[in-house]
Amino acid sequence: MTKFTDLNLNPKVLKAIAEAGYESPTPIQAGAIPPALEGRDVLGIAQTGTGKTASFTLPMITLLARGRARARMPRSLVLCPTRELAAQVAENFDTYTSHMKLTKALLIGGVSFKEQDTLIDKGVDVLIATPGRLLDHFERGKLILSDVKVMVVDEADRMLDMGFIPDIERIFGLTPFTRQTLFFSATMAPEIERITNTFLSNPERIEVARQSTTSDTITQKLVEFKPTRRDQTSKQKREMLREIITSEGEGCTNAIIFCNRKVDVDIVAKSLKKHGLNASPIHGDLDQSYRTRTLDGFRDGSIKFLVASDVAARGLDIPNVSHVFNYDVPSHAEDYVHRIGRTGRAGRTGVTVMISVPSDEKYLTAIENLIEQPVPRIEAPWLPTPPKPRGSKKAETAEAKPEAAIAEPKKAEPAKTEPKAEDPQPKPQPQPQSQPRSRGGRKSGGGRGGRSQSGAPVVGMGDHMPSFIALSFAERRGGEPEETSAKPTDAAPAPEAASDEDAA
Ligand code: AMP
Predict the structure, then answer these.
(1) Would you call 197 exposed, middle or buried from its count of C-beta atoms within 10 A (0-12, 13-18, 19+)?
(2) Which ligand 1 atom lies nearest to the CA of residue 317?
């Protein structure tokens, strides 16, 4: 087995990693460090949790140990897709350079330019940045990239998801042709392949096992949940979530709760708080200082439940998470693996519970295909009460079946039954082209379950009611038919468009 001492790293780096408690290099480190130290380009296909941050930082700081940065001319560049990841790389950099005199600047959005300018003006060895903020500094004339000797692109596949590839290409073009490139991606999508073919020169390719397997230390559970009324799906899911958390008992010391959409992150966090749980949201639209405080709070235990979107939580290294709850089934199967990988880390045990609704079926199938096992179903700890039929006893023809309630949108009155501030129903979002359209979309031409078309007997009128009664008020006045207040929501809201998740 390779040892760190075999890798030709600077002795001060070796000292720092020994102090960090690292005993031996991980496979990506053993594979990437030697070619990187030889000055070669590296293409690392590896996920978070494999030790990839050290695999580029350790050789980079060894190479930079000699020489000094000039004002506004950083000697190396690390590009990360999110602020949190950039901050995490910066923290790792501090750990590994604890015995060296290298300087760094962290350029991320949500932090004032002034402080960052001061650091850049002094000259930094390592610039760790999100692409947007880096280009902002460049455009303001504050940054010169012609002295960059090593450029790292971290989580390139996430950059692609977030629409940062044009920025990355531009940044490549601003750095010298002779620079060394260390490029990391969890997957090799065609667009990523194109970038690496264009900008990397004969790279050493190191691939560590794709994270399609889930750790044995994680107990996975799935609650298949059928809401009694489609318009109440969100509300009932939140209730289900609380019941699941309660049913996990004291073993649930802290948890990350994943939602697919930022709007739901906010709503779920607010709802949990309202019910007395210590929860905070984290997603890309929140102010940076709030995000930092939230993460610190979650790490130090003052926040127990972190409600998160995928991108905000991507790559976060938070040890000791007892539970991961999937409030939504992720629409990308690999996100399931990432999400649940937040628990059961480093040999510890962890529990994950996911809530699925009928419209999640195809996503669930994709997940189970990826992990090559079914997610064990458990009995729901709570079931919503079916809605009471309205009107006289004759209305029992509808039998208050959950399905009947869903098929009769006329009966649903979300505005009246859902608490206002807590429960804004997210607007259906445009579906990304790659996503198959969810079923249950509104049919053209009268699919609204209009009163005159429902076919259900009208209570108190018998079956022979005068035809004008079947018309809406507007129709009676000769206008357009009224919208029913309770049209069914389309089966599933579109998954969050990754590109709007976070910005530099
Ligand atoms: P990363 O994949 O870079 O996010 O690293 C995941 C975690 O593994 C971080 O907490 C690192 O501090 C830790 N780590 C990285 N390399 C090693 C190593 N060789 N031995 C032990 N822990 C490591």
Answers:
(1) exposed
(2) 10
